[in-house]
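2024-03-11 09:14:02 INFO receiving multi-entity request
2024-03-11 09:14:02 INFO entity count = two
2024-03-11 09:14:03 INFO echoing inputs for audit
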Amino acid sequence: MHWIIDLIVIHRRICSLLLTSLLSLLMITASPVKQADTLRFLSMTIFFPLQIVLSQSTRVKNIFAENHRLKADVIRLSAEVSQLREQAAENERLRNLLTIASDYDYDLLPVRVIAKDPAINFRSVVISSGNNDSIKTFMPVIGENGVVGKVVQVMHRISQVQLLKDPSNRTSVLFSKTRTVGILETETGNDFFVNCRSHEAIEEGDTVVTSGLGGIYPRGLMVGVVRRIEKIKDPLFKKVHVSLCMDFDHLEELFVMRLSPQWSAFRAELDSIEFDND
Amino acid sequence: MINTFIRWFGLFIVIYVLQTTIVPLLAIAGVKPDLLTLTLFFCAVKTEVIPAVFAGFFIGLAQDFYAPDILGQNALAKTIAGFFAGLFNEKVMRIDPLFQLLLIVFMFLIHDAVYYTVQILKTGISFQSIGMEILTTSLPRIFYTLFFALVPIFRELVFPSALKR
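2024-03-11 09:21:47 INFO inference complete, emitting structure
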């Protein structure tokens, strides 16, 4: 037995060549079925770890590629979702506006707010319609919750709307419950009030609508609700604070009521009046 | 010993991955370099006959496993090629770069001779078509591979300890 081992050790190079060649020849001469079995055996034993490493490296490469693609998809889909949300919100607003449009028996022109007064407490907005859409000055502008303001300047394609929150804009209003008429005023653009006589039975929560007496807004347009009633120094009057229904910070779609002021027939005469400054 | 084995094993895996992924992209008119056989040559001259024989066997087996045409065909060809190259290892003789290139050519010829002999015996392809195959594919492949062989030879000239035993 020892002489065989000695022979192998002495001729180890030839023996290794013979061994490997013999194995190769066995594989070569084997039947296709046997070869398939050998392949299966090799794949399950010797090359399985290598195959795992290779497949893992391919998988990692695929994961990176997939990750890159998914990131791009996430960005694209986020943009789409954002766009769809925006469209859904716009859809909701437009539906509400359509409800308003059917509520009022006036010629309403839908417009879009395209710019705002750059001041923080802005007092006017620019809308997307002008002379070309038959808009004229002093036409009332309303939103989904009520009065927004009036058109004060008109150009071909755009118009400027003076908002109710402009301190120089005074609006004649009516308390629905008591039928009291007053002038809606503001000093800061945030706090709105009406000076009423003390004996008027106005309560908090009463609704305030346009009175139709100013000649610009028709009667009955929603303006706001009574928030607080304040006593002032003059015992004959009280100050009724009003919360406006419109959210002026989020004006997007509005309606212009294509109405001429009630005093438009006398406009020429009114314009010709000269006031004596003395 | 173990370090040498791990180093060569790692190198063969890297070359195997390169051979199956990147090398096909370097093909010119369908001829691509055989980096595995080339690595086997350097393994043989740096180590010895027995490692070269087993390395050739397992590399060939891996190739057969990857593209199983005739199982054992590459294993036999690379075993014999490895044995041939191992006979000229650096323990036995010191070979200059030009002789190394010549040895590589011979090794490839032996490899292809064994490979095509098995092909003829197993599939019954005529000698003429095999001759054409050697002229159109085998020889261009050898010369294309020689171009890559210049890299480690040049590296060995500049940094003699680049591939330690």
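2024-03-11 09:21:48 INFO post-check: The interface with chain A takes residues 13, 16-17, 49-50, 53-54, 56-58, 60-62, 64-65, 68, 70-73, 75-76, 79-80, 83, 86, 118, 122 of chain B (CB under 8 Å).
2024-03-11 09:21:48 INFO post-check: The mean pLDDT of chain B is 83.
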